[in-house]
């Protein structure tokens, strides 16, 4: 009888640990983010508005992800698609980010003039692996809120750099880029 109780307790501990491991990202109202639902990605700290896109000089990928200059702007809604089947968006899971009107976010090649790695919208959704490794971002907990991170784990044989996504300001444009200073964000259902 005691071994049956031990097995039950071990199983219960495993289930409890597994549920804790898939903690969902939550919106400003404390509700879990859901796959396929649109959310505004908003800054926690003042200094700009929500996320949107601008046309860039890059001819291969003409749209760059930026933080709107106006603090009153909520930006363009974003949908999240996890690399694993999940209705909720788990913390620290590979995700495709997609503006409702544009393609999937991706980490663009390094910009030679600024030596920065910018986030653009020329990615391809789904298909986790070597060909799409630059299209996967994560939402991590950060100082009671969240940050976006580029650290894809969808390819076992790929060597990737892991960095936070922050804001690079040049000529009044607040472009999202790899950074040592993450943009602290929160999410509001659109």
Automatic annotation (TrEMBL):
InterPro entries: Kunitz_inhibitor_STI-like_sf, Prot_inh_Kunz-lg. It comes from the Eukaryota. Keywords: Signal. GO terms for molecular function: endopeptidase inhibitor activity. PROSITE patterns: SOYBEAN_KUNITZ (PS00283). This is Miraculin. The keyword Signal applies. Residues 1-20 form the signal peptide. SMART domains: STI. It comes from Noccaea caerulescens. SUPFAM superfamilies: STI-like (SSF50386). Gene3D superfamilies: 2.80.10.50. CDD domains: beta-trefoil_STI_VvMLP-like (cd23375).
């Amino acid at each position: 009888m005691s071994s049956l109780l031990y097995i039950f307790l071990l199983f219960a501990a495993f289930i409890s640990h597994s549920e804790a491991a898939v903690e969902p990202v939550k919106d400003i109202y404390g509700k879990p983010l859901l796959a396929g639902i649109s959310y505004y990605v908003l800054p926690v700290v003042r200094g700009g508005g929500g996320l949107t896109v601008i046309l860039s000089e890059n001819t291969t990928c003409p749209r760059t992800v930026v933080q709107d200059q106006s603090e009153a702007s909520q930006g363009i809604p974003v949908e999240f698609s996890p690399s694993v089947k999940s209705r909720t968006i788990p913390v620290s899971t590979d995700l495709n980010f997609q503006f409702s009107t544009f393609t999937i976010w991706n980490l663009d090649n390094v910009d030679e003039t600024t030596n920065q790695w910018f986030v653009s919208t020329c990615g391809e959704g789904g298909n986790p692996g070597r060909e799409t490794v630059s299209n996967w971002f994560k939402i991590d907990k950060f100082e009671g809120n969240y940050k976006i991170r580029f650290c894809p784990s969808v390819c076992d044989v790929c060597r990737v750099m892991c960095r936070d996504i922050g804001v690079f300001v040049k000529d009044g444009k607040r472009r999202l880029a790899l950074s040592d200073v993450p943009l602290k964000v929160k999410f509001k259902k659109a």
